[in-house]
Amino acid sequence: MKLYFIVNPAAKNGRCKKVWKRLEKVLRQKHISYEVFFTEKQSDGKQIARQIIESTSETAAIIAIGGDGTVHEIANGVFPFKHGIVGYIPAGTGNDFSRGIRIPNHPRK
Question: pLDDT (tens digit, 9 = 90+) per residue, 83-106?
């Protein structure tokens, strides 16, 4: 399974970039293979996720790093494909989605 990260660098006034930099350091230290994409505007998350999922028949873990809008777009990009797994590291302002499904708001957790 390949890991893909879609990062919204604008989430929470740039906090998301800091979250990504810390995570990227850990991934590199542990020699974990991944690809990263950065959104630039609304709907980029959906388009990037759709491109990833359509480019492979293997299981793809697509992890959103951002806020509620970012994870929403990525989930919509992966749907209705069955070989996509959506993950979420909350780094937005409200993070209502993560609170609703009890994902810790602290990225390290």
Answer: 999 998 888 666 656 555 666 665
Choice among 46, 68, 78, 89 that is catalytic: 68
Decide if 44 is catalytic. Answer: no
CA torsion sign, 59 to 49 to 2 to 23?
negative
Q: N- to C-terminal Cα distance for the chain?
A: 22
- Asked if residues 62 and 2 have their Cβ atoms less than 8 Å apart, the reply is no
Q: What is the pLDDT of residues 66-88, one digit of tens each?
A: 988 999 999 999 999 999 999 98
Instruction: Identify the architecture of domain 2-100 in CATH.
Output: 3-Layer(aba) Sandwich (3.40)
Between the alpha carbon of residue 35 and those of residues 2, 28, 48, 106, the distances in Å are 8, 12, 12, 22
